[in-house]
Amino acid sequence: GITEIPLTPPYIRGVINLRGAVVPVLDLAVRFDKPLSQVSKHTCIVIVELEQNEQQLDVGLVVDAVSEVIDIPAQAIAPPPRLGARIRTDFMTGIANLDQHFVILLDLGNILSLEELASVAQYEQAARTG
């Protein structure tokens, strides 16, 4: 299960133990100003590896479900669409059209600022030494 850490931002759900490593778990729904993700039998934590200051940081992302893991060829990826001044696309690295279905590719570096990544790393370190 997820162990909550007091006094963390709302989008940080807590930490998990992944093969002996303490991994912070973030809720992207909250980061996108949506309600806290509701846990169901399909809810998963996807582990991503992020680089910060030449150090690798493993982060868990709460997602509603995972239907499949796919490789997307580079030629299928287009730049994010321009949707107008009021719609933010800075969190996207691109959009892929796969068999008439669009897949949005997220830019985690823009979703989580460097300061936020640093704070996540601090929570992770505090949990390790804590």
TrEMBL record:
The GO cellular component terms are:
cytosol
Q: Which SUPFAM superfamilies match?
A: CheW-like
| A GO BP entry | chemotaxis
A single Pfam family it belongs to is CheW
Tell me the ranges covered by the CheW-like domain, including all copies: 1-117
List, alphabetically, the InterPro entries matched.
Answer: CheW, CheW-like_dom_sf, CheW-lke_dom
The name under which this protein is listed is: Chemotaxis signal transduction protein
Tell me which species this is from: Formivibrio citricus
